[in-house]
TrEMBL record:
<dbReference type="InterPro" id="IPR015882">
    <property type="entry name" value="HEX_bac_N"/>
</dbReference>
<keyword id="KW-0326">Glycosidase</keyword>
<dbReference type="InterPro" id="IPR008965">
    <property type="entry name" value="CBM2/CBM3_carb-bd_dom_sf"/>
</dbReference>
<keyword id="KW-0732">Signal</keyword>
<dbReference type="InterPro" id="IPR015883">
    <property type="entry name" value="Glyco_hydro_20_cat"/>
</dbReference>
<dbReference type="InterPro" id="IPR012291">
    <property type="entry name" value="CBM2_carb-bd_dom_sf"/>
</dbReference>
<dbReference type="InterPro" id="IPR013783">
    <property type="entry name" value="Ig-like_fold"/>
</dbReference>
<dbReference type="GO" id="GO:0004563">
    <property type="term" value="F:beta-N-acetylhexosaminidase activity"/>
</dbReference>
<dbReference type="GO" id="GO:0030203">
    <property type="term" value="P:glycosaminoglycan metabolic process"/>
</dbReference>
<dbReference type="InterPro" id="IPR004866">
    <property type="entry name" value="CHB/HEX_N_dom"/>
</dbReference>
<feature type="domain" description="Chitobiase/beta-hexosaminidases N-terminal">
    <location>
        <begin position="33"/>
        <end position="198"/>
    </location>
</feature>
<dbReference type="GO" id="GO:0030247">
    <property type="term" value="F:polysaccharide binding"/>
</dbReference>
<feature type="signal peptide">
    <location>
        <begin position="1"/>
        <end position="18"/>
    </location>
</feature>
<dbReference type="Pfam" id="PF02838">
    <property type="entry name" value="Glyco_hydro_20b"/>
</dbReference>
<dbReference type="InterPro" id="IPR014756">
    <property type="entry name" value="Ig_E-set"/>
</dbReference>
<feature type="compositionally biased region" description="Basic and acidic residues">
    <location>
        <begin position="829"/>
        <end position="844"/>
    </location>
</feature>
<protein>
    <recommendedName>
        <fullName>beta-N-acetylhexosaminidase</fullName>
        <ecNumber>3.2.1.52</ecNumber>
    </recommendedName>
</protein>
Amino acid sequence: MRRLIAVLALGVSAPALAQSAGPAQTQLDDLAGKLGYRFTIIDNNPVDCPGNAGGCFISEIAITTPAELPRALATAPIELRYSYVARVLSAESDTFENRLINGDLNALSLKPGKTLRPATTYRIRLTGTGHFFSTYYPMPNAHLMLPGLQGRVIAASRPAIDPETGLEYLPFVAPMTDEAELATAAPDDRTRWRTPERAFAINTERGVGGEPAHAILPAPRSVKPGDGAPVDLTRGVDLRLTGLTREAVAPALDALALGTGNVPLTIGIDRALGAEGYRLTVKDNAVAIVAGDAAGASHALRSLAQQAAYTKGRVAPMTVEDAPRFGFRGLHIDFARNFHSKALLLKLIEQMAVFKLNTLHLHLGDDEGWRMEIKALPELTEIGAFRCFDASETRCLQPQLGADPDPEAPVNGFLSQADYLELLAAAKARHIEVIPSFDMPGHSRAAIRAMEVRHERLTAAGKPAEAARYRLVEPADTTEYRSIQNYDDNTLNVCIDSTYRFLDTMIDEVAALHRQAGLPLKTYHIGADETAGAWGESPACKAMMAKTGLKPAELGAHFIERVSNDLAKKGIAAAGWSDGMGHTKPENMPKGVQTNIWGGLFGGGVAEAHNQANRGWKTVISIPDIAYLDMPYAPHPMERGYDWAAREVEPFETFAFMPENLPANAAVALDIKARPGKLADSAPLQPGRGMAGMQAQLWSETIRSDDQVEYMFFPRLMALAERAWHRADWEPPYVAGATYAHGDARVDRAAILADWRDFTARAAAQLPALDKADIAYRLAPPGARIADGRLEANTELPGIAIEYRVGEGAWQRYTAPVAVSGPVTLRTRSPDGKRASRSVKVEP
C-alpha cells in the first residue's frame, strides 16, 4: 500500500577542501540556479538485475555544470540530494557515488580525488527496484547542500504548471517514447500504452449515453416518470418542514439555490423509510420529500438539485424511491505525505454530500508528516509538519518525496485545531462522519522525530522524567530494519508505556474536539499496516516476550489488540488496514472493529475480505485495483500516479466493480499485467456476513497540489459513489464457493455496457456543476484515428468538446469525421471552456 524513493550528493576529499577558500552562499545560489538537471527512464526490461533482484529498471540523472564554475565550488563538498521512487541497487559513474540517507532521500557525492569541471555533463546510471512507467514517478526539487551554507533547490528540477491543463508537470524528465522498452517490466505483461487509437477502440466498444432519463447520480433505486407539466422551480419555493429543522438540511437547501416563491416544497420524516432513505415526489406544481431521517432529506434535496440543474429549473413530474446500498460510503485522503489545504477539504466535503458519500477518513500522520495540532504535544506540528534543510531534524524533517523545503510551500503545514473544528462543523452539517488516522506503529517517523526533539529539549532543561514521558523509541533498542519505504527509524516501540501514554494523550485531545463540534468521535483508524521487522533487539520487548510468551512476529498484533481495547473503553471503535488487523486474534479484539480491505483483487484480497467479514467485523472494501484513486487513470507515461497495484483505474473499471460478489469480478477485470484471470472463493462468506461498504483512497506521495487531488478524484469518484450507493441489476448474487473466469456468462457484459452508457450521460450532466465548484476534474484525452485520410474522434463521456489541429495550424472544433493530411493533435475541453485535457497526436 505504500512505496519508496531516494537523493543525490556531490562531495570531495579533505585535502581538496583545504586548498579551497570556501564558497560563499551567493556562489551556491548561483550554481543552484544554473545547474542542468535531467532525469531519463532508460529501460524497464533490463536483462540482469543487481543482486538477483526480482525486478529492476535503469534510469539516468544527468548533471550539467555551468560554463563559469568558481574553483571554490569545484572542490567543495557539495551534496546534491534527490528523491527516487525505488531502492537504488547500483549507481554507475566515474565521478559520483550514491548513498542512501533515509527513506527516499539519497545522496551523490564525488568520489575521492574527483572535482567538478565547468561546462561538463556528468551522467549517473541508476538501477532501481521495480519500474518507472510514468514521467511523473521522478520527484522534483533536487537540491544542493554544503556545510555552513543554506541548502538550495536546483531550479532546473522544479515542477512547472501547464497553462492549458492547469496541472503540474516535470520539465526535467525526458519524454518516454519507446513503448517496447518502457511500457512493461515482464515478458508476460500485456499492458499497452493508451494511445489515441487504442482509446478510440475502447470508447467505441463501450459507447456513451444520449439524453438521460434523469440526471441523478448516484442512481436511485427507482425513478418513475409522472404525468403533467413540469414544475418550474425558478419561481422559488415555499419551504415547509415537519419533524426537522432547516439547519438539518441547510447545505442541501443552499445547493438547490432556490429563492422564496410559491412552489410548495414540503419535507417530512417517516422513520419507516430507514436510515438515509427518502421518497421524492414532483407533481401538481409541488415537490414533496419524505425521508427516514435528516440525512435522507438532504440526499433527496441533492437529487432534486441535480435534476433541476440539468433541466434548467423545470423538473418533470417524477417519483424517486431511494435508499443506500451500503451504510458506509467513504472517501480517504492522505494529508500526511504532502499537505493539502483546508479549502480543498471543505470543497471535498461538499462534493461528498453531492454524491451521497457519508464518511471522511483523514490520514493525518505518517513518516513524512504530522498534520494536526495537538496542543499537549506542540512539537508534533512544529517539527513534523514541515520539511526543510536541517540534517539534524531538530527544526523540521528532511525533505522527502520531492517536497519543496520552503516552509511556506503548499506541501508543508498542518490543520490547526480551529481548522479541524471548522471541518467537523462542515461534515456534521452534511451528515458525514469523520474518522481521523495517525498511522502506527509503522509509518510513524514524523511523530518519532518530533518526540525525540521534545525529549532533547526537556533533558537539556533538567527534566528527565518529563522528557521520557512521551518518548516513542527505546534508546537501547538496536534492532536494524528497513521499511518498504526504505526507512530504518519509522516504527514506534510497542513495548514501552510511553507509547501508549502518547496515544492516550493524542486521542483524548482529538476526541475532545469532536465533542466540542457536536460530532462525537465514533471511530479512530489506527493504521496498523506495514510494520517492518522491528523490536527484535529491544530490551523492553524481550522482557515483554519473556513474560507473555509472545513472539517477535506477534508484537504488532499485540499493539493493535491493546490499542483497540483502550479505544473501546473510551467508547471509540478501532479501525485499521486489513493486513495488520488480520494478524490479531479475534478473541482478543473488542466488538465493532472496522477493517479496510486493501489486498489486491488478484492478490488475495477476496479471501482476506471474506475471512475478516466472517470475524464479524465491519468490512470496508478499499481494494486498490478499483478504489485507490492515486493510481493512474490509464497506462500511459503522461498519466500521474503510482501503479504498484494497478496500471489503470479508470471510471469504467470502478463502475463495473461488484463489491458484494468479489470473485465475480474476474469476469470483467484484468490483473495488473492486463491478463485475464480466475478468482475462486476459497474462503466463503458465512450466512449473514457481508461487506459493510466501500471507500475511495487517495495517497499523496505524488500528489503535491490541491488541483492534483481533484484531478485524481474526479470523475472516477462518481463511479465509486454509484457502486457504493446503488446495486446494479447486472450484479450476480453471491454464491458461496463459486469460481469465476474472465468472460464468465453469469456476468452480463452487454448489460454492464448498457448501464455504463446511462451512467456516462448522468456523469456528463454533473460536469457543469463541477466547473462551477472550481473542481479541476480530469478531462480524458479524446480517442482518435486517421482512417482513409479522415480523422475520427470520440470521448469517454458524451457531449465533451473535442478540438484538433493539423500540424502547427490553428485549433478547430471537431464535430464529425473530417479529411486531414499529416499529423493531427487533439484535446478535449471542459464545458465551461476554461480547461483542456492533455494533448494527444495521431499520424496518418
